[in-house]
Integral membrane protein (Marinobacter lacisalsi), 443 residues
Amino acid sequence: MPQTDPSFPVRLRSLLAYTALLCGVLSFVPGATVTGAVCVVLAVLLAWRDLRLVARMLFAFVILGATAAAVLQPSALLAASENMTRLSALILTVMLLSSVLGNAGDLVRISGSLFSGRPLARYYSLAFGTGLLSVPLNFGSVGVVGSLIGHRIRDKGDSAMTRNAVRAVLRGFAVSPICSPLSISVVMTVTFLPGLQSWELIALSLPMGVLILLGGAWQREPEVQALPAGDDTRAGLSPWLRFAGIIALICAGVFTLSGLAGLSYSKSVTLSCFAAVVIGFTVRGLRTRRLDLPSMAPVSNELIIVGGSAFIGALISLVALNLLGDDVRFPGWAFPVMALLVPWVFYVGGTAGFNPIIIGTLVGGVLGPLWPADAVLGLGIAMVSGWGITAAGSPYAANSLLMERLTGYPARHIGLYWNFRLSMVLLVLTGALASGLTAWLAG
């Protein structure tokens, strides 16, 4: 009796993920978005044994929601499938971009140099450095710098320096959802608030993110031990300039495609990152004389968390809009109050285990059509700030779970206890900013 190749299911999962990616890139082809959603579902089914409990539960909700939508409202099923394929393609493209840049020698020197300097300088170096790395690397930035922290813990033990380093990395990454033009949060916010321009949102969220990183030093432990002499690594200016140049080119492509070519912002981000991936693998292939694409089989958890959350969120928002009806109207004072509460909705939902994609889809899908057109910037700031604060303060955030695996620090301590007071202050301040902005712009 012939033996089945044990690696075949793994290769098939990777092939399905790549197919879903191409379906997202070629979403203008009839039936591509539905095909992409089917590929995501099949890839997750094949990886069932490797899925976390939360991913399995999310997949079950996807199946239940899809079944109900197919019977009650097939058009909602199509819209949710499109949402699933679009965001799945985006996260897969960003992961491939992370793989391309993660093998560069510049990244090793940059990440190592983040540990240099005195305690305060080292904290800011790690926070701002991770924030910059997370623009193209997404979760890869946490993986790269977190691996170095884990290595130091294994070599020299737990210390205030390593705990502060974890704080800095999580907070640095959390600024990415607030102001990175390539982040899922910014993409979704601009998508659900069509009257909001990406540059308009980032022009305000970027300085806000910088202030959040600067103020984060308030919540860290005092360090009594300095790094031994000669323990610093210097990267020099050239690696930073090359890395910043890559980010600038990708962002320029995004703004060109969305502003001049008239493509949707999510499509522009996916295509710009995909172009960078193609160029990166082409250059690598010319150097090594072979095309060595990474396997997409290990990303099944991320695929169902992102794609499934997008699917469920789209269904929930459509149901909510149908229940509210077309004639629903809120008094003028209600919008500043809702803007004040939106960051808290993200945070409370995140600490309860709900993915920010579900919350973002629900908030944007329901409130976006009802929000005053002149005041959408207030809702946009509320959404991205709530998303970012949740990324740093939720024990169920993917970056907290990844850091737990790399360093051994419990995710509950990393995400919740170490950041609780900072999260409370930021929720109050950003909520007040969003509320005041909404009241001012709405007149």
User: Anything to note?
Assistant: Confidence is low (pLDDT under 50) at residues 1-5. The CA atoms of residues 290 and 410 lie 41 Å apart. The first helix runs from residue 8 to 25.
